[in-house]
Write a structure and sequence with these properties.
Number of strands of chain A: 15
Largest sheet of chain A: 8 strands, mixed
Largest interface: A-B, 8 and 10 residues
Number of strands of chain B: 18
Shape of chain B: globular
Radius of gyration of chain B: 25 Å
Number of domains of chain A: 2
CATH class of the largest domain in chain B: Alpha Beta
Number of helices of chain B: 9
Shape of chain A: globular
Strand content of chain A: 15-25%
Largest sheet of chain B: 7 strands, mixed
Radius of gyration of chain A: 19 Å
Order of helices and strands of chain A: EHEHEHEHEHEHEEEEEHEEHEHEH
Number of domains of chain B: 2
Oligomer: heterodimer
CATH superfamily of the largest domain in chain A: Thiamin diphosphate (ThDP)-binding fold, Pyr/PP domains
CATH topology of the largest domain in chain B: Chloramphenicol Acetyltransferase
Helix content of chain A: 25-40%
CATH architecture of the largest domain in chain B: 2-Layer Sandwich
Strand content of chain B: 15-25%
Chain lengths: 322, 429
């Protein structure tokens, strides 16, 4: 085991998969220059044919990936910032998600879509928003986001090997988060669709991912003397592991969902509705959500006034535990 | 304020009421009706009720006078504006169903259940059955309540806004386990033939719930003594001789009620109800009388409390006649809602049924704070003025709610009652 950063873990996953499978390639803007460290050094090893820079023209960039996938390649499309995937949203959500269905389940479309997302860098708007909830709304696409370096490497490998389109952004707020990862050559995957209990507790379940998972864990540690908090990382939003969540609720009977996305129509709302449908009798208190208010993410220091944070998570936990 | 519509449905006023007839609307369409005013005359097969308006609003009837409909059927609308609602208004989410079922319509019950607006619950006003009361409880608490057989309406919620949550149910369950731990375990399998299996439902379930609630929610103290009724019986014998003239064979119970009126005048707090954390002492005396009624088989019987109103203003003969006709109405299922509600004191006699001298610990008929349970008299040698005399002694059991009154007034009440029974001329005062 070594201790490496989240972005290094992603880079290792891409490198290792590119080495064993020549159909895997990366396409994006400045992926050669590696604005973000997860594509650093790729072009030196794999050359410009497999690490493709494009102009700032997302539709064309995604078109390259889509066409390649139709022809049996396994592209990794990097939007740099998740918000810009919306420039070509019709192609990367609607057309991509429906492709397999519309072709009589005869043709797979193994595309991996990635991008940096989330708050923490004070970059505002398109540069700071989350995309997982929007993609999760569209059928036919798997959506996941890692919270630790270990999960990042294992989930990216699983995504690249998956024959379905997979949207797997990573959170910029934890890009330098360090964690233990198996040595190079110790191949492993973290399967998509499996949640992970990151901390065991008995009074309340907190569902949180990426940067917000780190917040939830710090709150759980702080509250440990008075409230026993179980922290679950969904890891995948589609498919979502309801079983792990319901099993936890059988014990805790209370749920707080932290989701760094807008409140309206987000992943947190979907989970909340499903729990009411499938686990109504398990609840001893209303489900509470900690999300972004329905307004654009502001830049600079103002970001901290809208983003979910440990204080808001603690307040929600205390409220459901009244 | 937005235009909203409240639906009013055929209320379930009695255990066995499945349908009812709108005998009369007591208000006009378009009238603004205040909550609590007489709204309609509703008739069932056996009883006629005047029902009160549960809410305030502009009234628009849906079912015309004379029509018979099932319980729960929409009868009328109460609107926030003087406009008859159209289909769009009533299909909207803002309509609120009033509870059609105040007695638990979901329970299957036999047609043989006697009709009554409230069984044993003699003191609750029928109007109160319309109270828009919602028990706040978490889904988990409700599920646990079912699993552990805990009645949630008997619990006090400790969650936000008084919500009953898991810890409340678990605490109640622990209490229950604690209590039942001292009881012998029920045999689950008994060999041999079963004579009869009686469903714990309908009237039986209502009685069961109310008895358990009474024992769980009050501080009951039972006391026992015997009163010498030798002289009272002699006076009664004189009245019995005049049976034809009086039109009734005056019973000992009528004397007992007169004696109770005397004792209540001395100690008024014995004539009280505990309602919503208040002790309400009544000026008039409405005597609740426990009346056994036939059960659904030859092996069981039920219990209802009939109420004889304003006994303080009645003579022995009126009391006796009133009592007899009340008992007949209750047993025949012809009781009106008045006959079964509003008691301020309870009389529960086992005289003539129990063995001579029987003492009991009667369970309070909530919300009454006191109950007298006389039984069969017994002949005893008593010392009177230094001499042994044969006396007829009436065994009396008296239960009072120590939440409402203490030992001192209770003892004074019993002494006054004893005095009146032993010196029946006091009943003339």
């Amino acid at each position: 085991m070594r201790t490496i950063t989240l972005t290094d873990a992603i880079r290792e996953a891409i490198e290792e998969e590119m080495r064993v499978d020549s159909s895997v390639f990366v396409v994006g803007q400045d992926v050669r220059g590696a604005i973000f460290p997860h594509t650093k050094g790729l072009v030196e090893e794999f050359g410009t044919d497999r690490v493709v820079d494009t102009p700032i023209a997302e539709s064309g960039m995604y078109g390259v990936a889509f066409g390649a996938a139709q022809e049996g390649m396994r592209p990794i499309v990097d939007f740099m910032f998740g918000g810009f995937s919306y420039v070509t949203f019709s192609e990367c959500s609607v057309t991509t998600g429906q492709y397999h269905f519309l072709h009589g389940s005869q043709h797979a479309l193994p595309i991996v879509i990635t991008a940096g997302v989330g708050t923490g860098q004070r970059l505002a708007n398109d540069h700071a928003m989350s995309i997982h909830g929007t993609f999760a709304h569209h059928p036919g696409i798997k959506v996941a986001m890692p919270s630790t370096p270990y999960d990042a490497k294992g989930m990216f490998k699983a995504a690249i090997r998956d024959n379905n389109p997979v949207v797997i952004p990573w959170h910029m707020g934890i890009m330098m988060l360090k964690g233990e990862v198996p040595d190079i050559g110790d191949d492993y995957i973290v399967p998509l669709g499996v949640a992970d209990v990151k901390r065991v507790g008995s009074d309340v379940t907190v569902l949180a991912n990426s940067l917000q998972l780190q917040h939830a864990l710090s709150v759980a540690e702080k509250l440990a003397p008075e409230i026993s908090v179980e922290v679950i990382d969904p890891r995948s939003f589609v498919p979502f592991d309801m079983e792990t969540l319901l099993t936890s609720l059988e014990k805790t009977n209370r749920l707080v969902i932290v989701d760094e996305d807008w409140e309206s129509g987000g992943f947190a709302a979907t989970v909340s509705a499903r729990v009411v449908e499938q686990g109504f009798d398990l609840l001893d208190a209303p489900i509470l959500r900690v999300t972004l208010p329905n307004m654009p993410v502001p830049g600079g220091y103002m970001e901290e006034y809208v983003a979910p944070n440990p204080e808001r998570i603690e307040a929600a936990i205390r409220e459901v535990c009244l | 304020m937005a235009y909203t519509v409240t639906e009013y449905v055929m209320p379930k006023l009695a255990m066995a009421m499945n349908e009812g007839t709108v005998a009369d609307w007591l208000v006009q369409d378009g009238d603004y009706v205040e909550a609590g005013i007489p709204l309609a005359a509703i008739e069932t097969e056996k009883v006629a009720y005047d029902v009160e308006s549960p809410v305030s609003g502009y009234f628009y009837s849906v079912v015309p006078v004379g029509q018979t409909v099932d319980c729960g059927t929409l009868l009328a609308h109460f609107c926030t504006e003087p406009r008859r609602p159209d289909a769009a208004d009533t299909s909207a989410n803002n309509s609120t169903d009033l509870p059609a079922d105040t007695l638990g319509a979901n329970e299957a019950r036999s047609k043989r259940d006697p009709v009554a607006p409230s069984v044993v619950d003699s003191a609750s006003d029928t109007a109160a059955t319309f109270e828009l009361k919602r028990l706040k409880s978490s889904p988990l608490a409700r599920k646990l309540g079912k699993q552990l057989n805990i009645q949630l309406d008997a619990l006090t919620g400790s969650g936000p806004g008084g919500r009953i949550v898991k810890r409340d149910v678990m605490a109640a369950s622990e209490n229950k386990t604690h209590q039942s731990a001292q009881l012998p375990t029920a045999a689950t399998e008994v060999s041999g033939d079963i004579l009869a299996t009686l469903p714990m439902s309908g009237l039986r379930k209502t009685i069961a719930n109310r008895m358990v609630q009474s024992l769980q929610n009050t501080a009951q103290v039972s006391c026992h003594w015997e009163s010498d009724i030798t002289r009272l019986l002699a006076q009664r014998a004189e009245l019995v001789e005049q049976e034809e003239l009086l039109g009734t064979r005056v019973s000992v119970n009528a004397f007992l009620i007169k004696a109770l009126v005397y004792a209540i005048r001395q100690v008024p707090i014995a004539n009280a109800n505990v309602v919503n954390d208040e002790i309400v002492i009544h000026r008039n005396i409405n005597m609740g009388m426990a009346i056994s009624i036939p059960g659904s088989t030859e092996y069981d019987s039920g219990l209802m409390v009939g109420v004889l109103h304003n006994v303080e203003s009645m003579g022995l003969v009126a009391i006796d006649k009133g009592m007899r006709s009340l008992i007949a109405r209750v047993r025949n299922g012809e009781a009106t809602s008045d006959d079964l509600s509003g008691s301020t004191f309870t009389l529960s006699s086992t005289a003539g049924i129990g063995p001579p001298g029987l003492k009991t610990t009667p369970v309070l008929n909530q919300p009454n704070v006191a109950l007298l349970g006389p039984s069969t008299p017994i002949e005893r040698p008593m010392i009177k003025d230094g001499e042994v005399k044969a006396c007829t002694m009436l065994p009396l059991s008296f239960t009072f709610d120590h939440r409402a009154l203490d030992g001192e007034p209770a003892a004074r009440f019993m002494a006054a009652l004893n005095n009146a029974l032993e010196k029946p001329s006091l009943l003339l005062t």
